[in-house]
Automatic annotation (TrEMBL):
GO terms for biological process: dATP catabolic process; dGTP catabolic process; dTTP catabolic process; dUTP catabolic process; response to stress; TTP catabolic process; UTP catabolic process. It catalyses: ATP + H2O = AMP + diphosphate + H(+). It comes from Tropicimonas isoalkanivorans. This is Nucleoside triphosphate pyrophosphohydrolase. It comes from the Bacteria. It is an enzyme of class 3 (hydrolase). PANTHER family: NUCLEOSIDE TRIPHOSPHATE PYROPHOSPHOHYDROLASE. Residues 36-109, 176-236 form the NTP pyrophosphohydrolase MazG-like domain.
Length: 270
């Protein structure tokens, strides 16, 4: 392949695929890229997906194109390794997802009527996905909920899947009661200084909170990200206030920082 494609600023997808093939070339490629494996690249894929989500959350549209490119590179990386091992090619990846999208949207690409509510579309989508899981031998209700998901998100999805077959609390009041029960069990384990029990009960508490979020129609990951951002914003404001006094958090008392924290909260709500 001539270098003209490598250096073509408008080479598009063909250019990126050729760049990756050259990077992985055993004789002339980059030593680092040649050494990478499925396992070493997977964590970068997760990280890049979060950076895409972060740019969208911040509405950093100028950064988003680059972040999407970084995420696309991960797919190209896996496609190149798949081709090297005779497993699949990039085109086969694209063909597979294209076929899936056509199959899952008979109301767009087939004869099925589009005259349905979004709720009905969701139910139909779930039926199609359930059939796909069954065809892959995933017969159990919770099969196919990815192990690699963040734990809070996986808890949410596990509960959502179980709820489809009726394994669910009837209302939020029952979930709140379960949270109170878990809080008492966590307090008991903490008082007993049983670390293993504390970890177990803490997991139960987080699982119950994820369930409450589902009942309230809230994405627990998004809610926690929002709180994380709020904590960073407020703590930075506390730190700035301390610097204005000529001191730092490490040199301040908890009472001093707590007073500034409350002042920041009041200013945000005013």
């Amino acid at each position: 392949m001539p270098d003209s494609l490598i250096h073509d600023p408008h080479g598009g997808m063909a250019r990126l695929l050729e760049i990756m093939a050259r990077l992985r070339d055993p004789e002339h490629g980059c030593p680092w890229d040649i050494e990478q494996t499925w396992e070493t690249i997977a964590p970068y894929t997760i990280e890049e997906a979060y950076e895409v989500a972060d740019a969208i959350t911040r509405q950093a549209w100028g950064e988003l194109r680059g972040e999407l490119g970084d995420l696309l590179l991960q797919v190209v990386y896996f496609a190149q390794m798949g081709a090297e091992e005779g497993r699949f090619t990039f085109d086969e990846i694209a063909d597979t997802i294209s076929a899936k999208m056509v199959d899952r949207h008979p109301h767009v690409f087939g004869d099925e009527s589009r005259d349905k509510s979004a709720e009905q579309q969701t139910r139909d989508w779930e039926k199609v996905k359930a059939a796909e899981r069954q065809s892959k031998g995933e017969a159990r209700v919770l099969d196919g909920v990815a192990l690699g998901l963040p734990a809070l998100l996986r808890a949410y999805k596990l509960q959502k899947r179980a709820a489809r077959v009726g394994f669910d609390w009837a209302d939020t009041g029952q979930v709140l009661e379960k949270i109170r029960e878990e809080a008492e069990e966590l307090a008991t384990a903490t008082a007993a200084r049983d670390r293993d029990a504390v970890e177990d009960e803490m997991g139960d508490m987080l699982f119950a909170l994820a369930n409450l979020a589902r009942h309230l129609g809230i994405d627990p990951e998004q809610a926690l990200r929002r709180t994380n951002d709020k904590f960073v914003r407020r703590f930075n404001a506390v730190e700035d206030a301390l610097h204005a006094r000529g001191t730092t958090p490490g040199e301040s008392t908890l009472d001093d920082m707590d007073a500034l924290w409350n002042a920041v909260k009041r200013s945000e709500k005013s």
